[in-house]
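Practice problem: predict the structure.
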Amino acid sequence: MSGTGRTERSNGGHGRLGSVLSGLAVAVGCVLFLGGFVWGAVEYRPYTVPTNSMDPTVKAGDRVLAQRISGDEVRRGDVVVFKDADWANMPMVKRVVAVGGDKIACCDADGRLTVNGTAVEEPYVRGMIGGRASTTDFDATVPEGKLFLLGDERSGSLDSRVHLEDAGQGSVPRSAVDARIDAVAWPLGGVIERPAGFAALPGGVSGPGPVRLIVVAVVAGALLIFGGAAYGPVARLFSRPRGGGRSGEGVSAGVR
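Answer:
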């Protein structure tokens, strides 16, 4: 009898501890899950890419997550969303290849873009005609406070090359930038990496946004919520007595 009582008290203690831990897991999971979504809503806005001018990095119809930033945060190599009156005054997606003060030209003997005389390796243009960074040769000097933008699909993109005769030689003000694309949300394409070819230039490339941390927070929160909620049913399932009838007969025989 005393042994049975100790066992019951022990099981009860473990059960209470398990209930506390499962409740804590659910609470923490809710904080991570909801906090991740709120963080994502504050940092990012969704866009649908309108054309294939950024193929193969992003394609027409892709749903992307763009981090809300100011134009002052833009670096070479960033894929940005911007709107400029001279570019049809509608949101467009292009890659920044040069910033204010840069001398940009194309192409060198190997068909590469050069920024201030330094050739830039761009793996996303290798599928273009002849593997060249542009189907037409050009050169321009970017005014201070402005950005020179190209699409990754250089054979068909309507970008800064089309506006070379404009006052800013095809550039747009930094203030025209609304956001920087960090990831393709649908179809699942993952994070858009900063091109290493621009990293050696002064100022380097921008750091990654928090999209990975946000995804980790949401997924971890969901797992904690489901794990904590499942504890009760699982614990009850494993705590059910087994072979209860035979045990009762044995006790009765011992009493007699």
